[in-house]
């Protein structure tokens, strides 16, 4: 059972998403919050498997909530909910530790599947969306240069794995592409996250896109 917390300043949005998601027999909404401060409290109390949060909220916004949740011990993945498919706000959310983002116009039939993917620890962010985010942001060239500098300490094999993460591939897909076991891929990913000082595979994948991999 996937235990989920919803965060949006519009109660009707939370109610609508709850109705959609709880139609699945493996998803239950264990709490909701209407600003970032309340979101942190609910997450600490409920210890959910996944958090879906709006970014633009009065008071404590979603960015602050993402940062505070990501700093928790055994933090759950946090996926940003947004009306916009690519902007600086979303990019900042990913840099702070969000495990991906979903636009609020995601069709209901797709939303349940994407929640399952995110709760399973995978990125909910297409390569195309990642590229739009990078190019929509200011300082793209400077960020690209910094990203290329950060990956210089990786081995050739680690760079290959990172390139796959930048394409949004799962560990199983990476293993198939590079002829590695899934356990070996997990080891490479864990090692890279430490070397690159990335919170999660989403940040590493975004770094791959920024570096031009």
Structure, described:
This protein is α/β, with parallel strands linked by helices and 213 residues long. The chain contains eleven helices and five strands; from the N terminus they run βαβαβαβαβααααααα. The chain has helices at residues 11-21, 36-46, 62-70, 88-95, 108-119, 127-136, 140-150, 156-166, 171-178, 182-196, 201-210; strands at residues 2-7, 27-33, 50-54, 78-82, 101-103. It has a five-stranded parallel β-sheet, sandwiched between helices. Helix 4 (88-95) links the parallel strand 4 and strand 5 (101-103). The longest helix is centred in the C-terminal third of the chain and has 15 residues, at 182-196. It is globular and about 50 Å long. This is Response regulator transcription factor. It comes from Pseudonocardia nematodicida. Keywords: DNA-binding, Phosphoprotein, Transcription, Transcription regulation. Residues 147-212 form the HTH luxR-type domain. InterPro entries: CheY-like_superfamily (IPR011006), NreC/VraR/RcsB-like_REC (IPR058245), Sig_transdc_resp-reg_C-effctor (IPR016032), Sig_transdc_resp-reg_receiver (IPR001789), Tscrpt_reg_LuxR_C (IPR000792), WalR-like (IPR039420).
């Amino acid at each position: 059972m996937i235990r989920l917390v919803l965060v949006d300043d519009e109660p009707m949005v939370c109610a609508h998403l709850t109705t959609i998601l709880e139609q699945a027999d493996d998803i239950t909404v264990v709490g909701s919050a209407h600003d970032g401060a309340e979101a942190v409290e609910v997450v600490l109390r409920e210890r959910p498997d996944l958090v879906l949060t709006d970014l633009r909220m009065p008071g404590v916004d979603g960015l602050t909530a993402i940062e505070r949740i990501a700093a928790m011990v055994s933090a759950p993945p946090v996926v940003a909910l947004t009306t916009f498919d690519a902007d600086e706000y979303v990019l900042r959310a990913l840099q702070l530790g969000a495990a991906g983002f979903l636009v609020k116009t995601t069709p209901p039939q797709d939303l349940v599947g994407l929640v399952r993917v995110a709760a399973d620890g995978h990125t909910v962010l297409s390569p195309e969306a990642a590229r739009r985010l990078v190019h929509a942001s200011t300082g793209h060239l400077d960020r690209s240069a910094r990203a290329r500098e950060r990956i210089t300490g990786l081995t050739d094999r680690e760079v290959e794995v990172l390139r796959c993460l930048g394409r949004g591939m799962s560990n199983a897909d990476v293993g198939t592409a590079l002829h590695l076991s899934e356990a070996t891929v997990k080891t490479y990913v864990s090692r890279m996250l430490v070397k690159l000082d990335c919170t999660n595979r989403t940040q590493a994948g975004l770094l791959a896109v920024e570096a031009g991999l």
